[in-house]
User: Which sequence fits this backbone?
């Protein structure tokens, strides 16, 4: 009780400053309050409170230490592990996709090159074939032309020879009837040939 | 009519004896036990789903955990991990006793200076021992401010030592005084409302004013309850940091 009385003004006065109405009210109630002062300063209650504080806080600490905090931290760690794991997986998948894209693009490029090579080869082959065919055809045609020309020339020569004979005979007859002279065949032929040459020239 | 500090009286609920030592179960003891039961039950129940994507209640538990974990991490560093369960227990204990005390007809355990001082003293002694074990004799360099003029060092050491030994006092009195003042203030306004009502006449209407004040103060007290739990915990972290890292 003595300590209570010593400490009473020490604790009470700043409190009265903090709560201006406290001084008034506590004064007003003081008459009906037998013990007076703060119950907190009753030393008799302290061992009991310390005992229960020790018991309850120890139990709380043990439960927090062995039950509560391990559970919470396990869940939080689990989650952060999952998040970082998922992020790593996503990164891996991204790298894979990029790699696949590169592969795909190179395959596409090579296929494109291959196709263009093949197209060029096919074009060249077709061109070659066409050229060869054309050349052969041209050769054939030339041969045919030459044969036809030869034939034509032969026919013309034949016709021309016949014409000379006919002309010679006609000239012989004409001369005979005109002047009654029988011209020799050689003479007439010579003349006819000369005339034909002149006509042709 | 009772005094506004009557609410802090320790009342024996039932008597208990242990080897002749009086351990009567009091209202204070009841709320300490309730604090332990409610806080552990809430945290265990909230974490029961252990869901990857937390629900509302699980989020509350995780937020409390992360709040204290961040405090320890940023104030003590990685060495503070070992002490995290204790610091978390301190936070939960102070927070729950403060909050439970705000329920009408309940008892505020932390409004008892002996309780807050016992916690503060335990922390003070524990932190000092941690510092002594970790740094040995070098721990006392903590009391010598670096870069001070030589002539001033003796005085500064005296000041540092006094301020060091004042730590448990300031730590405990801060929490105790906040709880005491808040609850006293609520009772004063409540008493005023009762007085005005019993005065009759026009005073009955006026009693609405202190009643409104109580509503506002209750909101403020909820803030103070949380804030003081935070302050008590963060100061514990800071003292621990000082002991582990000196300056």
Assistant:
């Amino acid at each position: 009780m003595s300590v209570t009385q010593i400490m009473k003004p020490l604790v009470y006065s700043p409190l009265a400053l903090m709560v201006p109405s406290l001084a008034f009210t506590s004064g007003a109630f003081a008459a009906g309050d037998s013990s007076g002062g703060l119950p907190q300063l009753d030393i008799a209650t302290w061992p009991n409170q310390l005992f229960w504080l020790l018991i309850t806080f120890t139990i709380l600490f043990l439960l927090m230490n062995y039950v509560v905090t391990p559970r919470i931290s396990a869940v939080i760690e689990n989650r952060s592990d999952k998040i970082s794991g998922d992020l790593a997986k996503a990164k891996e998948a991204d790298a894979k996709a990029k790699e696949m894209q590169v592969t795909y693009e190179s395959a596409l490029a090579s296929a494109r090159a291959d196709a263009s090579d093949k197209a060029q080869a096919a074009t060249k082959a077709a061109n070659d074939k066409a050229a060869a065919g054309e050349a052969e055809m041209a050769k054939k045609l030339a041969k045919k032309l030459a044969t036809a020309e030869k034939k034509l020339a032969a026919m013309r020569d034949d016709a021309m020879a016949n014409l000379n004979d006919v002309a010679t005979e006609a000239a012989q007859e004409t001369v005979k009837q005109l002047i009654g002279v029988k011209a020799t065949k050689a003479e007439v032929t010579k003349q006819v040939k000369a005339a034909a040459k002149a006509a042709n020239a | 009519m009772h005094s506004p500090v009557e609410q802090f009286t320790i009342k024996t609920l039932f008597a208990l004896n242990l080897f002749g030592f009086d351990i009567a179960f009091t209202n204070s003891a009841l709320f300490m036990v309730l604090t332990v039961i409610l806080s552990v039950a809430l945290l265990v129940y909230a974490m029961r789903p252990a869901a990857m994507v937390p629900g509302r209640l699980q989020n509350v538990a995780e937020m409390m955990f992360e709040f204290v974990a961040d405090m320890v991490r940023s104030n003590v560093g990685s060495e503070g991990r070992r002490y995290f369960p204790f610091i978390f227990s301190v936070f939960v204990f102070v927070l729950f006793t403060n909050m439970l005390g705000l329920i009408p007809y309940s008892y505020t355990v932390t409004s008892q200076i002996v309780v807050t001082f016992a916690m503060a003293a335990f922390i003070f002694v524990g932190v000092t021992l941690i510092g002594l074990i970790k740094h040995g004799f070098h721990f006392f360099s903590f009391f010598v401010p670096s870069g001070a003029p030589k002539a001033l060092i003796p005085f500064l050491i005296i000041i540092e030592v006094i301020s060091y030994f004042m730590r448990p006092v300031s730590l405990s009195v801060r929490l105790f005084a906040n709880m005491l003042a808040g609850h006293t203030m609520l009772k004063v306004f409540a008493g005023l409302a009762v007085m005005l009502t019993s005065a009759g006449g026009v005073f009955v209407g006026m009693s609405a004013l202190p009643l409104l004040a109580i509503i506002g103060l209750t909101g403020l007290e909820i803030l103070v309850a949380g804030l003081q739990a935070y302050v008590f915990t963060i100061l514990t972290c800071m003292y621990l940091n000082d002991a582990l890292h000196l300056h």
Remarks:
- Residues 6-245 of chain B form one domain.
- The longest strand of chain B covers residues 12-14.
